[in-house]
Design goal:
Helices cover about 20% and strands about 15% of the residues. It has a 3-stranded parallel β-sheet with strand order 1-2-5. A two-stranded antiparallel sheet has the order 3-4. By secondary structure, the chain is of the alpha/beta class. A hairpin with a 7-residue loop joins strand 6 and strand 7. The protein has 2 domains: about 10-100, Transcription Regulator spoIIAA (2-Layer Sandwich), CATH 3.30.750; about 105-183, Oligo-1,6-glucosidase, Domain 2 (Oligo-1,6-glucosidase, domain 2), CATH 3.90.400. It is built from 5 helices and 7 strands; from the N terminus they run E-H-H-H-E-E-E-H-E-H-E-E.
C-alpha cells in the first residue's frame, strides 16, 4: 500500500550535520552563536560531505530548557537573529544543494506561550482544551507529572520534562477520567 506521505528521495543519500545554534558560530561577537554564523559556515559543512542540516530549536523562547520551551513558533529567537536571517539560511543552503530541517517541539510549549496563558484562565475559552488539565485542583494526573496552584484555572496541568513545559493535548487513546480528552 502506498504511503500517504512518501519518503522524500533526498533522504536516501542525506548526511546530516546537527547544529545547536547557541554554541555553533557567533557572527556578531556577543558570545552566542547565531543564524548568520551558520550561514558563514555552510561551505565548510558541505566540504565535510554533509548535504543536510538539522537545526536544534531556534524559535523564540525564554530558554529555561535550551530553547525546547518554545514561546512563539513563528519567530526566530532574537539571540539567533531574525526570520529574514532564517530565510537567508534556507536560500544559501539550497543554493549549495543542501537541505535544512528545523527541530520542532510538538509535545509542549513554554508556559509563556500565549496559548497556555489563555488556557490558564478560569473561564472556558477556545484554548481550554489545548493543554492537558485535570478537572480540579485536588485531582492529580494519575502518575503523569503535573503542576497545580499556579493559574486562575481550577485543576492541575500535565507537563513534559520541566514545569515550564505544559503538555499539549493530543488526547488519550483510552480516557478513564473526566479530564482526559479522547483522540
Amino acid at each position: 500500500m502506498p504511503s500517504m506521505f512518501p519518503r522524500p528521495q533526498w533522504l536516501a543519500t542525506a548526511r546530516f550535520y546537527e547544529i545547536y545554534p547557541q554554541s555553533f558560530a557567533d557572527s556578531n561577537g556577543d558570545g552566542i552563536g547565531d543564524i548568520p554564523g551558520i550561514v558563514s559556515r555552510l561551505d565548510y559543512i558541505r566540504d565535510l560531505g554533509c548535504n543536510a542540516l538539522w537545526i536544534n530549536p531556534c524559535f523564540d523562547s525564554p530558554f529555561k530548557d535550551a530553547g525546547y520551551d518554545v514561546r512563539n513558533y513563528l519567530k526566530v529567537a532574537p539571540r539567533y537573529g531574525t526570520n529574514d536571517d532564517l530565510i537567508t539560511l534556507f536560500d544559501e543552503a539550497h543554493r549549495r544543494g543542501m537541505h535544512v530541517l528545523l527541530d520542532l517541539v510538538p509535545g509542549h510549549t513554554s508556559e509563556e506561550h500565549p496559548w497556555f496563558r489563555i488556557s490558564s484562565r478560569a473561564e472556558r475559552n477556545q484554548y481550554s482544551d489545548r493543554y492537558i488539565w485535570t478537572d480540579s485542583w485536588m485531582s492529580g494526573a494519575d502518575g503523569l507529572p503535573f503542576v497545580g496552584g499556579e493559574a486562575p484555572r481550577d485543576g492541575t496541568y500535565v507537563l513534559n520534562f520541566f514545569k515550564c513545559q505544559p503538555a499539549l493535548n493530543y488526547g488519550f487513546a483510552h480516557p478513564e477520567r473526566p479530564w482526559q480528552m479522547g483522540v
